[in-house]
Amino acid sequence: MDGVTSATLCSRNAHKAKELEQLLPGWSIEPLERSDWPDEVGDTYYENALAKARFGREVGDPRRWMVGEDSGLEVEALGGGPGLHSARYAPEGRPAIARLLRELRGVPLRRARYVSELVTLSPSGEEARGTGTLEGRIAEEPRGSEGFGYDPVFVPAGESRTVAELGDAWKLRNSHRARAARALLAALGAALVLVAAGCGGNAKAAHRVLVAFFARSAQGRRLAPLFPNEPGSVSCVLHTGGTSPGTTLQATCSTDVSLVKPDRAVVTLTEAWNHGAQAHTWFFFIRRNGEVDSVVEEGVAAPQAQR
Ligand code: IMP
User: Which whole-number Å values give the CA distances from 12 to 31, 56, 117, 165, 180, in the listed order?
Assistant: First the structure.
């Protein structure tokens, strides 16, 4: 990607535009100023983020990239809530924090996490996505003045200070949105290498690369039973012994292959789990004969992975 990528952030939240402009270097991001946003009715953060980006394409400048973002706070003791409904739980800031602390009063289980899903649509409509999470716990009372939303009561795992105390510079390196942005850039990086090389690829060539890949590398052979042998998605059971003993973890596993002329390809394997809210992706940079040059791994591994 040479030069500046002009993008529109399809979100009501001005804090996010500020954070994202710094998280996506080389991107010039303008917020989409609208009052007629569609309702967030998706079952996953991904669906909501995609809906926002699609709305941006309908009403915005078609020459710009559209960035949709959806995020939320999931609190274990509240059954994963407010989750997808974080923005509607109570007005952002003090009212939302007051409600959260009231609902957790006297509750010792304080585990929580932030989730962020980013989806981009290029001017020609190609989609890319990145997911990020930040594990932590809810503090007993608000502390700190930076960040926004629930940051004054969110203490990341391994820290004693809240995100609002750790500050905006910390957030830029470590937040769920920072992680989602890195995953997105990795996904776009793979795609853009291909575009830059003027690549294409057809189903036959993709199939040949995949067969070679799954047969020749040890990692490929281990992953082969989980993923489709041609580009596409399948529902699958990733692990036995899921989040609790005796259960299994349902997921969707997808395979994508993009060919770079003359002899390189990128195979992307993604396991999406937790109803699509989380994803674990491998990017294999491979030769046409199936030899793996390098592997980049992004996202969060499914819990208690027992392959
Ligand atoms: P939405 O993604 O605009 O639907 O809303 C996400 C909501 O989750 C925000 O209104 C905040 O309440 C919360 N949230 C998301 N990201 C953050 C963050 O980085 N800090 C604090 N709260 C956040």
Answer: 8, 12, 15, 25, 18
Write out the catalytic residue numbers.
Answer: 70
Distance (Å) from CA 122 to ligand 1 centroid: 24
Q: Is the C-beta atom of 174 inside 6 A of ligand 1?
A: no
Which pTM was predicted?
Answer: 0.67
Nearest CA to ligand 1 atom 5: 87
Q: Where are the domains of the chain?
A: 5-191, 198-299
The string of DSSP letters for 261-306 reads TTTEEEEEEEEEETTTTEEEEEEEEEETTS-EEEEEEEE-PPTT--
Ligand 1 mean position to 19 CA, how many Å?
Answer: 12
CATH 1.10.10.10 fits 5-191, yes or no: no
Query: How many whole angstroms from 71 Cα to the centroid of ligand 1?
Result: 5
Q: Is 56 in the pocket of ligand 1 (CB under 6 A)?
A: no
Q: Per-residue pLDDT tens for 235-285? A: 776 665 555 555 667 777 888 877 655 567 788 888 887 766 678 888 888
